[in-house]
Amino acid sequence: MLQYKEGKGGSVLRIPAKELEDTVLDLVCALLNDPHRIIELLSPYALPANALDAAVESAKALGNDLSGTSIKKLVAEIQELAKRVDVAKNKIRVELSREKLIAHLTAGLSDRRDMNIETESEPFILSAEVTLKRSGIEAKLIYPEGTPASAHSRSVKALQRALFKSLEWNQAMITGEVATFEELIRRDDLNPRQTHRLRQLAFLAPEIIDRIASGDIPEKLTLERMKKDFPLDWKAQYHHFGLKPSQHT
């Protein structure tokens, strides 16, 4: 559309770049971590078993590298591998450069010089079912098997402000700045019902608090949901909010 090629562009919705990048990354990493698909990709080149094993390990290493890299490097890597990405209402289709993908996987193999990879070979296709869902001012790209959609920035900021106030109130109680919560409400001229609902945010698990502070929260974890009663047991909170604790939690 930006290149005035409307005939090839189809209908266009604005999709957050990070969601599109995360979905493409999930598809690429799923390929790289699947030994059967890697072997299928390389099967036309009749590589010996030890070379195939090396290529499978190289694929895993590349997948791990992509998962842990900076966004700037990630975009550069994906742009090198991907020839085209098409997003439809119910499907995403990624065309990977077969030549560049195989070059990544077989770099350093002594057998590579005999592979005769065609420069203009057919692209390697990745595809998955997705859902385009309107969410306020933008469209959300929902990939069920991938990374959960992140919350909108306005939702994140509202939750962060509420969490900060809750921690601030809790600190006032702990230090004896106020004797009772009712005193705090009177002192700061707060809405009693709203304040009692927000007060419980101070009792979230430390890692959940850290995730909210850093903005690392899924789309469904909203302030309205947080205002409702939730378990005080930290482990139970992860299940209640549909979160996965880190390995050290």
Would you spell out the secondary-structure blueprint of this structure?
Elements: H1 6-9, H2 17-32, H3 35-42, H4 49-68, H5 71-81, E1 82-87, E2 91-96, H6 98-106, E3 124-129, E4 131-135, E5 138-142, H7 153-174, H8 181-188, H9 192-199, H10 206-214, H11 223-227, H12 234-241
Antiparallel strand pairs: 1-2, 2-3, 4-5
Return Rg in Å: 24 Å
Overall tally of structural domains:
2
Strand percentage lies at: 5-15%
Major β-sheet strand ordering: 1-2-3
N-to-C terminal Cα separation, in Å? 47 Å
How many alpha or pi helices? 12
Major sheet size, sense and barrel closure: 3 strands, antiparallel
Count every beta strand, where a strand is a DSSP E run of 2 or more residues: 5
**In percent, how helical is the residue content?**
40-55%
User: Structural class of the secondary elements?
Assistant: mainly alpha
Stretches with pLDDT under 50, minimum 5 residues: none
Question: What's the rounded overall pLDDT mean?
Answer: 79
Shape: elongated
Order of helices and strands: HHHHHEEHEEEHHHHHH
Please provide a written account of the structure.
The chain is mostly helical and 249 residues long. It folds into two domains: 6-142, no CATH class; 153-241, no CATH class. The protein is 51% helix and 11% strand. It has twelve helices and five strands. It has helices at residues 6-9, 17-32, 35-42, 49-68, 71-81, 98-106, 153-174, 181-188, 192-199, 206-214, 223-227, 234-241; strands spanning 82-87, 91-96, 124-129, 131-135, 138-142. A three-stranded antiparallel beta sheet has the order 1-2-3. A two-stranded antiparallel ribbon has the order 4-5. The radius of gyration is 24 Å and the shape is elongated. The chain starts with 5 loop residues before the first helix and ends in an 8-residue tail after the last helix. 18% of the residues are buried. The model has no long low-confidence stretch (mean pLDDT 79).
